[in-house]
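pasting for ref
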Amino acid sequence: MKLIGIGKKKTGLFILLALWLAVLVAVIVLTAVKTVSATPRKIPVYAVGTSEKKIALTFNAAWGDETTDGILDILRENGVKATFFFVGDFVGQYPESVKKIVNAGHEAGNHSDKHGDPTRQTFAQITADISACNDKIFALTGIKPVLYRAPSGAYDNNTVEAAESLGMTAIQWSADSIDWKNITPAKMQARILEKVYPGAILLFHLGKENTLQALPGILNSLLADGYEICTVGELLLDGETYVDHNGVQRQAGTQLAQ
């Protein structure tokens, strides 16, 4: 009987201990969740809050350079400057194209060195990747980019903070041409014109024939509508700014976008 009593006491202690451990684990998990949710979400610039009819034209340079000369001709004919986001591998493979673009007065941005997913990389790996691309662009052109666009638009807090730690601004886009899906020039033009508004950032790619065909009509329509087409650097606001929850860069002190 005594042995049975001792067994019951031990069982009761084990149950109490198990309950205590379960409560402790629950508290730890809830604390971790609260900590994560309390961390402010870092958002790149998708667009700029402005009343001026200004928009930025951007090209990602990650694939071939077959359309580079044609794109540059169209931009020159229309008096338009754009921002080109270069992948480091593209810089190494097509140095003459990169120099042509920069020498024509266009802005050089950073699109990573290897076009890997930054959300699968550590903070140190992201900064190393961005820096490697910057080094290649600087060695070739003497320009150190201050704008960074994550590969495939993939980002998290680490991604944005890594760019900021290097004195750079993370840039996305508000109007995607989806030229990489090989849509027709007519559909591309209709898509862009439908999505454009003051402060928008337009996304295209080098090496896409449909972009080369669609670009003249897009630029003509935008210019005829009174838009000033510029680089991202020219579109961004000066002074103290913040990025609201919609990814719109705004002047400090202005009301948060609804």
